[in-house]
């Protein structure tokens, strides 16, 4: 199992994908399961963390997909 990487992340939720992931040896999925992915457009903050310093952004990056189970909290 991959190591957990914790980070503060800023982005705008575009939409949530809900689909059934089939059993797959290639993906190490033992049983078919429901999967939720958040489609997020990340804010470019140059690595700043608002829990430490004032953080702002002017630009956003291209969308990424994040397993919704890995998100601990959201604001806004």
| Rg, Å, rounded | 15 Å
Please state roughly what percent of the residues sit in beta strands, choosing from under 5%, 5-15%, 15-25%, 25-35%, 35-45% or over 45%: 25-35%
Shape: elongated
Mean pLDDT: 89
For the sheet with most strands, the description reads: 3 strands, antiparallel
Tell me how many strands there are. Answer: 3
Q: Quickly count the helices.
A: 0
Strand order of the largest sheet: 1-2-3
**Order of H and E elements:** EEE
- Span of the ends, CA to CA: 32 Å
Uncertain stretches of 5 or more adjacent residues: none
Task: Provide the structure class.
Answer: mainly beta
Level of helix content? under 10%
Structure description:
With 76 residues, this protein is mainly β. Helix content is 0%, strand content 33%. It is built from no helices and three strands. The termini are far apart. The model has no long low-confidence stretch (mean pLDDT 89).
Question: Which structural traits does this protein have?
Answer:
76 residues, mainly beta, 3 strands, elongated
